Amino acid sequence: MHQIQVLDQAVADKIAAGEVAERPSAVVKELVENAIDAGADRIQVEIRKGGVEYIRVADNGCGIPAGQVETAFLRHATSKLSQIDDLYRISTMGFRGEALASICAVAEVEVITKTPEEEEGVYLRLKHGISEEKSEIACGTGTSMMVENLFANVPARMKFLKKDSTEAGYVADVLGRIALSRPKIAFSYTCDGKEIFTTTGDGKLASVILKIYGLDHAKALLPVDYTESGIHISGVVGKPELARGNRTRQTLFVNGRYVKNHVIAKVVEEAFRNNMMVGKFPFFVISVDLPAELVDVNVHPAKTEVKFANEKQLYDIAYHAVRNAIGAGEKGKREEVL
Ligand code: ADP
Ligand code: MG
């Protein structure tokens, strides 16, 4: 005989938390996306011991009103989505209202935040979802989130983590891609007291590429800029000399969000077919911007997969965009982007 039971809330929260806060890099991604949604133009990320011991994300965005700080940590609490219709017109990075609830279920969290309208900021500390201390604090406008002892209460999750340096590498990768998607935001990433990279926020993609991949990459870029049927393809592809034996340096954004789409990667590779050796993959940072109703980003909680309404048309347009960039490069018409 078996008996069906409804999970108690704490257990259900821990399970749900595992989907959003899978590892330190996922926590950083969520916190940084919140900073972007808050309109910040400066975002500092600091981690210690692979992010398990300590993560801090500080922004100069709009802050959280003092009276709503606790609410922000409740499940399904969001200021970004109020009606179901909005789901098809998402312009913010977040919309599920799950990240803060998930993170604080599996860690100790401190937040310091202030809106421009308020004189004083507020400090709140929570442990495993329960608020432990709240006070006023003097601080500038914006939000700092500190996450400590991640997964200390979920030993099973802990076991899945790799060594600190590997986890720190994942954080660098996630943050690097976010920085590439937002050249107007100045990012900094510090790991165990060492500065790994900073971007200037000067608005140029090539400047971000310089900081993240180095001068050889920044000097070998072909600009992509092509619009057809309301679909805008922009960014850069690397000259063939930047090609590598794997796809780790391929980055795709759809409406400002980092996504994975193998077909678009294949389309770019196809465009390079006569310029590149078999087994080599081109460098690219490409943004696809299209009307929100033509793309569904809602297929997976981590939101790195997308579905397009008219795939064939999109792939044709992307192919043309990249072919044009390569063609202009061959004719020496390439504009200097750095
Ligand atoms: P979502 O981003 O899906 O709305 P979150 O759990 O990530 O859900 O955040 C909940 C709410 O907390 C957000 O909707 C926002 O109002 C507020 N918030 C979180 N982080 C910040 C931040 N850095 N600056 C301003 N507001 C924030
Ligand atoms: Mg969020």
From TrEMBL:
GO annotations of cellular component type: mismatch repair complex
Positions of the DNA mismatch repair protein S5 domain: 209-327
Family, per entry: Belongs to the DNA mismatch repair MutL/HexB family.
Keyword line: DNA damage, DNA repair, Endonuclease, Hydrolase, Nuclease
The name this protein goes by in its record: DNA mismatch repair protein MutL
Coiled-coil regions listed in the entry: none
Gene Ontology process terms (BP): mismatch repair
GO molecular function: ATP binding; ATP hydrolysis activity; ATP-dependent DNA damage sensor activity; endonuclease activity; mismatched DNA binding
Protein's gene: mutL
Known function: This protein is involved in the repair of mismatches in DNA. It is required for dam-dependent methyl-directed DNA mismatch repair. May act as a 'molecular matchmaker', a protein that promotes the formation of a stable complex between two or more DNA-binding proteins in an ATP-dependent manner without itself being part of a final effector complex.
Tree of life domain: Bacteria
